[in-house]
Design brief:
The complex is a heterodimer of chains A (about 210) and B (about 425). Chain A is α/β, with parallel strands linked by helices and about 210 residues long. Chain A contains nine helices and seven strands. The mean pLDDT of chain B is about 95. The chains are: A alpha/beta (about 210), B alpha/beta (about 425).
């Protein structure tokens, strides 16, 4: 079971996730050495492949640097769970097929270092010690598709067309954001009923 | 040179109900009338790439996508974040960016031309009604001229360059109405900081901030307002054109780019400008805003005047007015970095830089300077900096135990003279020489 690292503060920003002084590379294994350095410099020594970060609201605010996602993934983090995310960070997560799960009350569910049971298909996360469980906001189908493809670029390439046709198709199928695929960068704020998660959807093992 | 997507149709697509500015622009640049919550696939008028992600961008274009920019004239690379280069690896990345620009025909604004947002505005590469995506979060700045400016990561930026399009969820809008008149000595920066305090650091996440300022504020001041919107989490910060401000700068302002009466807003706030005093954001979140008077007297090690928020000619004028004939306190250092070569030239010609130099300012190459802590004035542990920039996060300008306070250029200049947080009126006690 993955270990949970609790960073309970709200507004943890990209300068804390990966300080700008380390933006001299986009090699994930390099960036990983400095993940969360200005928040908790010992984090990279504790984190194990597959671990989960639980954080306060507005995680990833600040810069547009995609390195914030790369550094965490490089460090082995499989998912970040927070009440909500800053929008550029959230979008970067989707584009990289990296899990950013929105879950109200998540920082109360775990103490730092506890283990978690994450059920992506069922949309729940559970603390086996306490037996308590929370549901997270379902991952948009679009995000799952991107994750399955291995990222936004791969998803687009799979459509064999970077000229935008795939984008247009996405728009049409989204029905402008209501029924169908919540393609927006803000599924948490979607109006109307949440789309069903495809229960039979082929889920990739998240990056271990 | 042609820039931007094809001309607007002149009227919004068939709408069914009143629209915000964000809804209007995304409708115009998409294929149908859209409203908050809808998904829009839109034409992108300008894609801006900064030096610090240029390598990632090129890798995504060439290695991952095997694509070239669909419209090279709609792509600009700006070398500004670490310019001139500070290390060999940074120099190598910038070399590759130059080679890429030469090869593909995209625009390159090289070392010394200035900060991306300032340069694109000066070059009119952001215009009313356009969609401008930048690989820098402060791309909301283009909202100063009612362009939908938004920051994105390297992958999104590459896709936009390759396809000429992007997808956006149409944001809800927060309407910010500014009323009354500013007191003397209170500036657009104070308004912007107050706006972030009112909205909260994540108070407009995923949303568009639509600022109704009437005919107040210059283009530069509007840039300061739009720039700070991302500090409330906003996707865009659109200042509604008012009076003749934009037409005076030579922009074509489409008749449709104004919000409709009755447009739906997620939230509406009003800020009475006449009640505002100079404001300061204390560590380590931008919405931690106080009156400067409350922080007065705090010892300051470094003052930085510059950035995309406040490095324009009017900002340097405001600083020079305070510093004229005075000296920076010997226990404090003052860095001044003009936002662009154009600003620098103007400040050279009108004597502003001489005034600042004589006061003891250290002048730097137009660019981002130490704003994001990579060079040209990073902070040591325990040091205190008053900066005209936009972020005071932990570790932002160097060591994580340094402390950053955000303020207007006039307050920053007064602080430099006193060596402590000060108001412009405080420097009266320091005799000015002729």
């Amino acid at each position: 079971m993955p270990t949970v690292h609790v960073f309970a503060r709200d507004h943890i920003n990209t300068d804390e996730i990966i300080p700008a002084r380390h933006l001299t590379t986009d090699v994930e294994s390099e960036l990983a050495k400095y993940a969360m350095e200005d928040y908790d410099k010992d984090f990279v020594r504790r984190v194990q492949p597959g671990d989960i970060i639980v954080a306060g609201a507005d995680f990833g605010c600040g810069s547009s640097r995609e390195h914030a996602v790369w550094a965490l993934r490089g460090a082995g983090v499989s998912a970040v769970i927070a009440p909500n995310f800053a929008r550029i960070y959230y979008r970067n997560s989707i584009n990289n097929g990296f899990l950013a799960l929105e879950c109200e009350g998540i920082t109360e569910l775990f103490q730092d270092g506890e283990e978690a049971e994450l059920d992506l298909k069922g949309g729940t996360i559970r603390n086996p010690r306490t037996g308590k469980e929370l549901s997270f906001v379902p991952v948009p189908q679009f995000a799952l598709d991107v994750q399955k493809a291995g990222g936004w670029l791969e998803y687009m390439k799979a459509g064999e067309d970077v000229e935008g046709e795939r984008l247009d198709n996405a728009s049409t199928s989204a029905g402008h954001g209501h029924a169908g695929t919540p393609l927006g960068d803000d599924p948490a704020k979607e109006d109307g009923p949440r789309p069903e998660q495809a229960s039979g959807h082929q889920k990739e093992e998240h990056h271990a | 040179m042609t820039t931007g997507a094809p001309p607007f149709s002149g009227s919004s697509p068939q709408t069914t109900r009143p629209q915000t500015v964000a809804e209007k622009i995304l409708s115009q640049r998409g294929s149908a009338a859209v409203y908050a919550g809808d998904l829009a696939v839109v034409e992108v008028d300008q894609v801006m790439v900064v030096d610090s992600i240029a390598q990632s961008f090129i890798e995504r274009m060439e290695r991952d996508l095997g694509a070239v920019p669909k419209y090279p004239e709609r792509v600009s690379i700006v070398v500004d974040h670490v310019a001139p280069a500070s290390t060999v690896s940074v120099a190598q990345a910038q070399k590759e960016a130059r080679e890429y620009a030469a090869k593909t025909g995209v625009r390159l604004f090289d070392v010394g031309r200035g900060i991306c947002h300032q340069v694109l505005m000066e070059e009119k590469l952001a215009q009313p009604g356009w969609i401008v995506l930048g690989s820098d979060s402060h791309s909301t700045t283009y909202g100063a001229v009612a362009a939908f400016g938004s920051g994105m990561g390297a992958t999104d930026i590459a896709l936009a360059a390759a396809s000429g399009k992007t997808w956006l969820r149409v944001p809800e809008s927060v309407k910010v109405t500014l009323t009354g008149d500013l007191r003397p000595g209170v500036t657009a920066k104070d308004v912007a900081l107050e706006m972030i305090r009112v909205l909260g650091a994540d108070g407009a996440t995923y949303q568009s901030v639509e600022i109704h300022a009437g005919d107040r504020f210059t283009r530069g001041e509007r840039m300061t307002l739009a720039n700070l919107c991302v500090e409330a989490g906003a996707k865009a910060g659109l200042v509604v054109p008012g009076g003749e401000i934009l037409t005076d700068y030579g922009y074509d302002v489409p008749a449709w780019v104004y919000p409709d009466e009755g447009a739906a807003y997620a939230r509406e706030v009003e800020i009475d400008l006449s009640a505002l005093h100079p404001r300061m954001s204390a560590p380590s979140e931008v919405d931690n805003v106080h009156d400067v008077a409350e922080l007065r007297g705090l010892k300051v090690d470094q003052v930085f005047i510059g950035t995309c928020t406040n490095g324009r000619i009017e900002d340097l004028h405001a600083a020079a007015e305070v510093l004229r004939g005075r000296r920076v306190d010997p226990t404090t250092r003052l860095l001044v970095i003009p936002a662009s070569s154009q600003v620098m030239e103007e400040a050279l010609q009108d004597g502003t830089l001489l005034t600042l130099q004589r006061a003891g300012a250290v002048l730097g190459t137009p660019g981002c300077g130490p704003c994001m802590g990579r060079h040209q004035g990073v902070l040591a542990p325990g040091e205190v900096c008053v900066s005209t920039s936009n972020r005071n996060f932990i570790g932002r300008m160097g060591d994580k135990d340094a402390h950053i306070y955000l303020a207007s250029p006039a307050v920053a200049a007064a602080t430099a003279v006193m060596g402590r947080v000060a108001l412009p009126e405080d420097v009266a006690q320091v005799a000015a020489s002729a």
